[in-house]
Amino acid sequence: MSAVDSRSVTIALPTISLHFGLSLDVVQWIPLAYQLTIVGLVLSMARLGDMLGRKKVYAVGFLLLAVGSTACGLSEYFWLLILCRIVEAAGGAMVLANGRSIASTLYAAEGRGRALGMMSMAFHVGYIAGPSVGGLLVDTLGWRWTFFMISPLALMAGYMSWKILPESAGDKGEATIDPVGMFSLLLVAISVILGLQQVAKSGFGSLPMILFLFAGLCFWLLLRVEARVSAPLLDLSLFKIRMLTAAVLSHFFVVITHASTFFLLPFFLQGILHISPTRVGLTMIFFSLVIVCLAPIGGWLADKLGSRLLCTVGAVLTVLSMLGFAYLDGASTQSTVMFSLMLLGLGWSCFQSPNLSGMFNAVGPRHIGSVSGLSLTSANVGNAMGVAVGSLLFLRWLNYYGLEGAVVPPYTEWGANPEMFIKSFQNAWLVIAALGSVAIVTSAMRGRETKKKLE
Asked: Which residue, 355, 281, 379, is CA-closest to 39?
């Protein structure tokens, strides 16, 4: 469900930008509103699942997803669409925060890597359905149906969750929501994103620096609060575990590369290669086709070999795929794009399930909910940062090559000077590859997995 929603809306972004008359730096708030809401809520929703029961929160999340997605499709104004995306994201946070915890609890004794691999496979079945169906809907019924199609599926998923899943919960006695920690974390993410946007518009100046300093202040407050409360939202003691810290950092930088790429790629395919939304969707599913086939194998190998080798190989393949995107130009074919996407999918298959398995194996049962929320928070901060970083890099390179001002013209007008846009895409992906290389280092430095766990 999360994947269908994410990828179908990504395909629709260029069309939505034309419908509302928005530039790229404004339309990015459609995915950003979703990701930032999840950043602010996912740890608290994981904690709420520990308090009330993970199954209850998980099932109600699907109901909220259905309501929010329907409201998005009905929105006549951009600001209303953003508000409805926040509602939809609240439901998404409830689902994402508890799904992995439920699976990890059910398969705590054995097979956890394979179970997480199956979840990754299911996630990428959604990544296949999202772009292909979303692109077709944009071309036929309109972009609003990329939201409408979510509602019946979400209702069905919520009903099945309630009927089929057993209830599970963490340590109810110590669980609290920690609103100060939640609000501080959200302010950190929002301040950084706004700062990056200001850099994209006007370069480094006083306002971006103020926003970054405010983000640092909020982060300091977050650390102070979490160190003092009895049941912190973000358990800082978990970061004493080398495996967990390295896995979180690796996940963060790999996700940044993915988010930046999947934000930029539809604009490249439609603006440079002049591909229709339907063909864009069919092109992008090759990333997920590889993962659907190989993710369970990656999970199985994680149970056998541990996470360090597999995650390092996955990070290397991710960087190589970014270099492949950096060589795309106006003469590139769909096959060339598909190859880089398949290489990226291979990297994710090697990385994701082993990385998650290593995180869960590093802690005891009472910390499963916290680690699930922590992994999702790092992923969603990375997703939000990736969108902002992709937009920033593309816009700043456009400024470097002669585009005046901060507003990017509609992609339908890029044919007047395609070389400027092609070079900006290429250089943006080179910088993204450099960011992804950090994950190679952190994956290699995580150390071997041991049976010792933090209880």
From this structure: 379
